[in-house]
Design a protein that fits this description.
single chain, alpha+beta, Aminopeptidase, six-stranded mixed beta sheet, about 30% helix, disordered C terminus
Length: about 150
């Protein structure tokens, strides 16, 4: 099966309905209900100064919607005392998993953090989410203990 090619970019309003649907699916993987609404997502992702919502689009697909996303918040790390990127959510839809899209999203988040003069990036993960432990291990990050990893 050929590896899909993707474009990673900051989300626009047109990306929010599918991104919201993916957030619901991500919450369901851990037995939670997503309480964020599309309106709140828009306020956080498009209007808030701290959020960077990155979306992955397949360039070989006629579908305009994203197949994955990463939500990163830029905040002051109270331990390090510096600006820091916190990847709060990372999700890739089936059947696009296992083709490097998660890696591309994380690389783009790292670049956005560097652009914002962050000194590092923390990736938040729950081991029970589908595939996250495999992604983090493939990237050299231990996702099981502790429940997050700093890079």
């Amino acid at each position: 099966m050929p590896v899909p090619t993707v474009t990673i970019r900051l989300a626009t309003e047109a990306d929010l309905p599918e991104t919201h649907r993916m957030q619901i699916a991500l919450a369901a993987q851990t037995g939670q209900s997503a309480t964020i609404t599309p309106r709140i997502l828009a306020r956080i992702a498009l209007e808030g100064p701290a959020a960077r919502l990155l979306v992955a689009h397949r360039t070989d697909s006629p579908q305009p919607h994203p197949v994955g996303f990463a939500l990163m918040l830029v905040e002051r790390n109270m331990v390090a005392g510096a600006e820091w990127g916190f990847v709060e959510q990372l999700y890739v839809q089936e059947p696009d998993r296992g083709h490097g899209i998660g890696r591309a999203l994380l690389a783009a988040a790292r670049q956005k953090a560097a652009d914002a003069r962050c000194e590092g990036v923390t990736v938040s993960s729950k081991p029970e989410t589908d595939g996250s432990a495999l992604v983090w291990r493939a990237m050299g990050v231990d996702a099981l203990e502790p429940r997050f990893a700093a890079e």
